[in-house]
Amino acid sequence: MLYKAQKNAGDILVTETEMKTSRAIEQYKTQGKMSYAIRGSQRLCVFVGVVFLSLLVGCQSVERGAWFRPKQPRHVQTNLYGEFNGWKPRQFEAKPFSSLAQHSYCEEGGDYDPDISPDGKWIVFSSLRHAPNPDIYVKKINGSTATKLTSDPASEMHPCFSPLGDRVAYTSNRSGSWDIWVVGVDGTNPTCLTTGSSNDVHPSWSPDGKKIVYSSYGPRSEQWELWVLDVDNPTTKQWIGYGLYPEWCPDKENPKIAFQLARNRGSKWFSIWTVDYLDGEAKFPTEIATSIDHACIGPAWMPDGKTLVYSTVGRSQYEKVKEPVPDNTGEDVFMVSLDGTNSLRLTNGDAANFSPTCGPDGRVYFCSDRSGTNNVWSVKPHQIDFAMDKPVDLTRHPQSGFLAN
Q1: What angle do CA 108, 112, 114 make, to 5 degrees?
Q2: What is the model's pLDDT at position 267?
């Protein structure tokens, strides 16, 4: 079948098949152009949608106009003392644990109040290992067996070797109130030195062994008082001031007594003081160590008589206070020179460390619950004299030879 088709000015005769083919080609071209246009429109819509969503999300997190403002530099604020706002400085903590040693191995109850004999071979302490009330024990420094010096239903604590090491002074409440007693190192001849209704605790011998200083709670003053008595004539007593836990300096040329005393204002924390005992009188009270965050308690003398060790304690977690109490209550052992310099922290606060005392070799003994139960431990402190002539090697530990990185 023939059809007439017009092209320009002339007529062209084409068959039916040729006509269908021509129409199909034209239709394909038209549909292709439309499909291309549709796909381009879809791409444009997707692009516009992504941009719109980005702007929508950004507007929720950034304030209006922030996209167009230049980024401001970040400034760190410091105060007058050069401290960053919100940042708290942390003091240097020495951890001389290469010389840490354990000396008692109580698994139930606990050992307390250690004191070292003048020859450094024996240790005397109070313990709850066999009874609910403490008794006095003595043992070799590195021994495993402990011998009872007292065996009484009452409580005995605060033992202290005499300068000759032949007697031990301690506190006992066997007569009803706390009194000062003396017993031989073999447990013989227990003698009561103080009597009365007042509570007398924590004896300490003078270097010549003739006098004892102790604390007594005054019924009139309602404060802890410092008293000195004559060992051979215990009725002769002398009041020398206020304070608690006195310790007589072992150096005869340095007639000082260290003790703890609470301030009368603010936090009322205890601080460490000394007083000179000259011609039977207490003179020149001097504050050696203090803290606004912790109480400084339980002073003891190093053998040279020029350095003190003491322990610190913070607020208890069992106090009924509004402010939260930190887990670390600050029960650690410190060492400080008599002029208040060269303060050195000997323990690191991972356990309760308290009641320090010193041996003739310079080791510091203390009580700690780092093993789970209170036992007697010791550490060998080391202080560097930066005024010495020869150079000081700061990379090597003096006791262990450990080399720092």
Answers
A1: 135
A2: 74
Return the structure tokens found at 126.
């109070």
What's the rounded Cα separation, in Å, for the pair 391 and 384?
11
Whether pLDDT at 270 is above 90? yes
Q: Which residue type, as a one-letter code, is found at position 226?
A: L
* CA 318/CA 393 separation, integer angstroms: 45
Provide mean pLDDT across the span 112-120: 96
Q: What is the mean pLDDT of residues 331-344?
A: 91
Instruction: Provide DSSP, 182-223.
Output: EEETTS---EE---SSS-EEEEEE-TTSSEEEEEEE-TTT-S
φ and ψ of 389, to 5 deg: -75, -45
- Centre a 10 Å sphere on the Cβ of residue 389 and count the other Cβ atoms it contains: 5
User: Which DSSP string do the residues of 142-177 spell out, in sequence order?
Assistant: T-S--EES---SS-EEEEEE-TTSSEEEEEE-TTSS
* pLDDT, tens digit, 9 for 90 and up, residues 303-312: 999 999 999 9
What is the average pLDDT value for the chain, to the nearest integer? 79
Distance CA 385, CA 399 (A): 16
Tokens of 6: 């017009």
